[in-house]
Amino acid sequence: MKELRYFCTAGKGMEQFLVQEVISKLSACDVEHIPGKVFFTTSAGLERLRGLKSAERLFLLLKKLPPLPAPWDSGKMTRVIQEKIIGELGDWQQGLSAWLSLQQAAKESRLGPAASRRSRKRKRDEETGKEEEEEEGDGSSPAKKQDLQGSPEETPLPAQVVDSAGSVLPGRADHVSEGPSCPADVISSRKQPLVSFRVCCRCSGILARKFSPQVNVHLSDAHCILGFPVFRLPLAHRPYIRTTGLRSTTAWAMASLAAIKQDGCFVLDPMCGVGTILIEAAKEWQNAFFLGIDINESQLKKARENIQFSDLTSRIELMKASVTEIPLPAASVDAVICDIPFGRKFGCKTDVRIMLPAIVKEMERVLRVGGTLVLLLSPQLSAFLGKSFSREPQQNQRPAACGSEEAGEAGRASPRLVDQVTADRVLVSAEGSSSAPMDFPSLVRMGTYRVSLGVTDGLVQEYKKGLCKRGDGNLL
User: Fold this and answer.
1) Given this model, what pLDDT does residue 220 score?
2) d(CA 355, CA 378)
3) Smallest Cα–Cα separation from 57: which of 8, 102, 106, 116?
4) 8 Å CB contact between 152 and 193
């Protein structure tokens, strides 16, 4: 497949994960991002594109323009829309041609190679039969002959783009016969197939207050973007999950921070709920083993159903236990990933803030040296937990090297965070370089990522476990 320019939409704070993903999975080039969107160029096929886990939707990029110019006079604005957004016919022809190729590739992927060959052969036979009928002069009416025109691949694309109601979108004067729209008989006389799109428009900033849109493009104070959706369903839709819990894109992002790389890696979610994090991780990293723990039997039941539905029963185990008493030996887990509940109550009557230090302490105990801890917290819980990391230790209580390259970087912010999306969405913490926690002496905070959870924001915190010495010189 030839190289095409795409863009993906992403939830707030997910742009950085998506940038890394398109580079690693699609070998994408010319990658750039703005809040809520990531643009890239790739020749990857549809299956690889469909495999993006941190994106919401995927679009084939038609245009990316600067913001629409003022003044906001309605007549002038109509002209600007026609010239800048709708523009030249050639732009639409090229974009529609690429989009049709993608749809054909998607159809062939669904049918399979054999069925696709049969479909193409049947199409050729039908076209050959139609040509023979016309040559024999069977008395077909002009209307019938018009219906026997070639396929979209053999016929020039239409000079107009039609919305879902059948109306032709207004274009440049040299492309449209008198008036803002073209009559149906004019379109019919061209003897060309029409491609119909449902058109939606989203505006933000000053433009949203000044202009009532009739065409669906992405307009803001910073840019104008027009694209065609590649897939009918969002990429964030997971067909392998029956009961949804944490948003799948966030769950995948948390798992991506856990460094699940080597074969036989043991990953724990000690508050697994319906198992979303475990399933997302197991689908992506197929050589690891996963264990989910929860105290709530009803949640475990839904998790079992989800795991069975996703066909991961051989790699994900579930256990009923308390997160404050994890039934595993010390230093036995390679990665711990956990979505801490945001509610005020933990268990029956206990405030989650009271239990939070004990919860993290138990996770620290089962995590091996060099392992990764990834937590999702509310801003309030994050601030509460941060108090345990804010006290200055004694001089010989600073973390020592863990004997690995990862541990050598433990006191510095991860290089992955250098390319920040926006300062208020990516918060990098390097407190481990100057102080060690009193309550969790072996955990070093690597970074904090603010992500949108819909009605509220959450903070994904990443820690590494190293070795730490007590005041008497003995290892903890």
Assistant:
1) 81
2) 15
3) 8
4) yes
